[in-house]
Amino acid sequence: MKKAMFILNPSSGKEKAKDYAEQVERTLEEMGYSVDTRETQKAKDATEFAAEACEKEYDFVVAMGGDGTINEAVSGLAEQEHHPLFSLIPLGTVNDFARALNISLDPAEAIEALKTGSEKWVDIAKVGDHFFMNILALGQVAESTYEVTPEQKTKLGAFAYFIEGLKAITQDTEQYFEIEYDDGKFEGEAKLVLVALTNSVGGFEKLAPEALTDDGLLHLYIIKNAALPAFIRIAGNMLVGKLDNDPAVEVIKTTKVSIRTNEPLYCNIDGDEGCATPFVIEVLPRHIRALVPPDKD
């Protein structure tokens, strides 16, 4: 009999995860799987569970939770010899990876869609010992996301990140970057550096409109220092997917990028604090065997 591991974060989705757990287990059983359910209790549990699923050659891994739980699960699947099928049930504030894969943000619909999904190999990226599926960000604006409280997430959702980011933009902070990529180099000051893998970043699905989940590319955005009015313009262009037309933004496609700063700067990886500069980011093309809704990119 086929084996599925179901990883859930019981505290995610305003603690609604357990309400959907029975539906997930029933659906997987109807699909012909024996189900091994694992609940996370602490950081990195989902990574360890997913790695175990690879080691024991499970056929399918389903993770349910917010972006942090999904990132941990994908990290456990990364660079393994065995590649089980993977899907997710979104219960987070932003749910970027679900958006990028066109998975319904309604948990019940996402669970039901497991029955009709199709297989697609998708990209992830690696920086140091970390992996990510959506976005790496550097700069005062990126660090501001750590100020978002659980209460703000519950009340405001993704807009809470926008508010904290706007506060950071008004601060007069300068950061010097040396950024090397496939075809060149950038040296200078920037307010924010983004490295995107998918079109959905922070809940905004048009930030990187050309980014596909399987294009084998990192989409690099260098947002230079500018006054508040310019950042308001940049935010507008971000919302409509026209960052590449903004004079204060450099847009680069690459497979690898090296980033140095004049002093160590911690990055934000898929919404959580990552490693400090200097570091190298590289794409792992078509690395995760995902189950996605049919006839959707």
UniProtKB/TrEMBL annotation:
The keyword tRNA-binding does not apply. One of its GO terms (biological process) is phospholipid biosynthetic process. Its cofactor is Mg(2+). InterPro entries: ATP-NAD_kinase_N (IPR017438), Diacylglycerol/lipid_kinase (IPR005218), Diacylglycerol_kinase_cat_dom (IPR001206), Lipid_Phosphate_FormReg (IPR050187), NAD/diacylglycerol_kinase_sf (IPR016064), YegS/DAGK_C (IPR045540). It comes from the Bacteria. Keywords: ATP-binding, Kinase, Lipid biosynthesis, Lipid metabolism, Magnesium, Metal-binding, Nucleotide-binding, Phospholipid biosynthesis, Phospholipid metabolism, Transferase. Coiled coil: none annotated. One of its GO terms (cellular component) is plasma membrane. The keyword Lipid biosynthesis applies. Residues 1-130 form the DAGKc domain. GO terms for molecular function: ATP binding; ATP-dependent diacylglycerol kinase activity; metal ion binding. Gene3D superfamilies: 2.60.200.40, Probable inorganic polyphosphate/atp-NAD kinase, domain 1. Belongs to the diacylglycerol/lipid kinase family. This is YegS/Rv2252/BmrU family lipid kinase.
